[in-house]
Amino acid sequence: MRKIRQSQKLRHVRYDVRGPILVEAQRLEAEGHRILKLNIGNPAPFGFEAPEAILADVMHHLPESQGYSDSQGIYSARTAVAQYYQARGLRETDVEDVFIGNGVSELISMVLQAFVDDGNEILIPAPDYPLWTGAVTLSGGTPVHYRCDEDNGWMPDLEDIESKITSNTHALVIINPNNPTGAVYSRQMVEALVDIARRHQLVVFADEIYEKILFDDAVHHHAATAAGHDVLCLTFSGLSKAYRVCGYRAGWVMISGPKEIAEEFLEGLTLIANMRMCANVPAQHAIQTALGGYQSINELIVPGGRFYEQSMLAHKLLNDIPGVTSVKPQGALYCFPRLDPEVYAIEDDEQFVIELLRSKKILVTHGSGFNWPEPDHFRLVTLPDVDVLEEAIGRIAEFLATRR
Ligand code: PLP
């Protein structure tokens, strides 16, 4: 019989955070091993709970959420998102500028399907959140990675971006705060990035899902503010991280800038939104409550709060391991340590992660899974309680000691 193959479109698409490393972890679990999974930024399994008002609101609205909603999203959710940005100085944001999706993930795919033509080049940071690279590839585009500079706190290398722009470059992706590096960009950096887009007539895709997870004196600056009236900017965010409801699948994209030049693209985006009917309706009801209510996230990101303490502890313990350096995270939920090649000489970082998993029953994600070009990094999720983190990083240190 003829073999059923995957489509050619998928040939170069990768999403390693849930790739072969997870399959191997599941195989070990089936054998009866307990695996500590530090590969996904999913707060709920680590004892984080959503604000109660969100749960109550979703439950309250279940009976009336049985039908499809408007494809762009329910009115109250879109209004809440529009007002959220208005209150941040983006005064002209309108309810029509907001699309609600099943998480930022769905919206990234939808936007790229509507935007990218075969061979279009899209600038994406390295390292990146790998959905961006995968979704650009799947939509027929060419991801072009610009380097973020570890020696400069993982800031984007502006010269590298400029040098990679061609007549075929159409958009610049900015992930701020960054996954996997934890970097948060200064106002000057955001303005410099947007200015590149301005000069080269690129659209900005700003993934700001970690905008409320900031440590110490880090401040988040919206790319849309820098983009103003003359750069088309699509800002992505949602409830998964700051409100700890990854499973609800609630996110949005907000369109700002010269929308009049983007009418055709927006028609395309509407078509794609229509084709998938709507986002999960009960979760859409949570958006207004989340954005308007008490921001309990602010308790987690200050000294004494779990996000803060765990991030700082992970950063310290990783740096205590010989040959390991990790830039201090300014936000988000991750550390992205470097393993000095002179000490560890790793050739295949995915294999390294699998060996760590088999030996110590801890699952982290290899740096090349984030399109980092050298096999010398991995990403650790900083969500476990401090005791568990200490134990986990201790086991990683033991494993590394066998590799020096
Ligand atoms: N963007 C970034 C940078 C992320 O880290 C993630 C999830 O980890 C997403 C988007 C996807 O989020 P959502 O749960 O809203 O689909």
Describe this structure in words.
This protein is of the alpha/beta class. It folds into two domains: about 10-50 and about 300-400, Aspartate Aminotransferase, domain 1 (Alpha-Beta Complex); about 50-290, Type I PLP-dependent aspartate aminotransferase-like (Major domain) (Aspartate Aminotransferase, domain 2), CATH 3.40.640. It is built from 15 helices and 15 strands. The protein has helices at about 20-30, 50-60, 75-85, 105-115, 130-140, 160-165, 185-200, 225, 265-275, 280-290, 295-300, 305-320, 340-345, 350-360, 385-400, and strands at about 35, 100, 120-125, 140-150, 155, 170-175, 205, 235-240, 250-255, 325, 335, 340, 360-365, 365, 380. The strands form four sheets. Strands 2-9-8-7-6-3-4-5 form an eight-stranded mixed β-sheet. Strands 11-15-14 form a three-stranded antiparallel β-sheet. It has a two-stranded parallel sheet with strand order 1-13. Helix 1 (about 20-30) packs parallel to helix 14 (about 350-360) and helix 12 packs parallel to helix 15. It starts with 19 loop residues before the first helix and ends with a helix. It binds pyridoxal-5'-phosphate. Pyridoxal-5'-phosphate binds near residues 129, 175, 179, 207 and 238. Pyridoxal-5'-phosphate (PLP) binds near residues 238 and 246.
CATH architect. name of the largest domain: 3-Layer(aba) Sandwich
Supply the CATH superfamily name of the largest domain.
Type I PLP-dependent aspartate aminotransferase-like (Major domain)
Give the termini distance in whole angstroms: 50 Å
By secondary-structure content and strand pairing, the structural class works out as alpha/beta
Count of discrete domains: 2
Small-molecule binders:
pyridoxal-5'-phosphate
**Strand order within the widest beta sheet:** 2-9-8-7-6-3-4-5
CATH level-3 fold name of the largest domain? Aspartate Aminotransferase, domain 2
Shape: globular
Strand content: 5-15%
- Helices and strands, in order, run as HEHHEHEHEEHEHEHEEHHHHEEEHHEEEH
Helix percentage:
25-40%
Mean pLDDT: 96
Low-confidence runs of at least 5 consecutive residues: none
Radius of gyration: 21 Å
Q: How many beta-strand elements?
A: 15
Q: What is the CATH class designation of the largest domain?
A: Alpha Beta
Largest sheet: 8 strands, mixed
What is the overall number of helices? 15
